[in-house]
Amino acid sequence: MRVSFEELNAFLVDHFPQGAAYGALVDLGDGWAEMVLNVDEVHLRPGGTVSGPAMMALADVAMYAALLGKIGLVPLAVTTNLNINFLRKPVADVPIRARASLLKVGRTMAVGDVFIYSEGMKEPVAHSTLTYSIPPNKSEN
């Protein structure tokens, strides 16, 4: 792990403050990150369920955190693909938690997956796979 939990949290506050709307980092390890989103009215859609865009944003930021924890604070690492499967209805009045895990990290691309859970549910409510582009290291050019 190249970045500590504290370093990554400080980086996110300074360089990606809008990310707080999509969840808070709660744990970080070598190639993985965990985030939680406290669901409120802005995250709900008609019918009383957590919206797809809220879950997609949580998955994306969780993967960003896992990647930066592994490769270092590289602000221009960006999502190139995000696929999500909504598996079951999340509970509307409890937080949702995302666990992102890196599957492969190369020089220019990284692939990982994210499972999203409603607090208190054993089965995931969504599963996402993501690909990130990693900008070239200028010292390698």
From TrEMBL:
Xref: Gene3D superfamilies: Hotdog Thioesterase
Alphabetized GO MF terms: acyl-CoA hydrolase activity
SUPFAM superfamilies: Thioesterase/thiol ester dehydrase-isomerase
Provenance organism: Marinobacter litoralis
Name of the protein in question: Thioesterase superfamily protein
Domain (Thioesterase) ranges: 47-123
InterPro entries per record: HotDog_dom_sf, PAAI_dom, Thioestr_dom
UniProt entry keywords in alphabetical sequence: Hydrolase
Domain of life: Bacteria
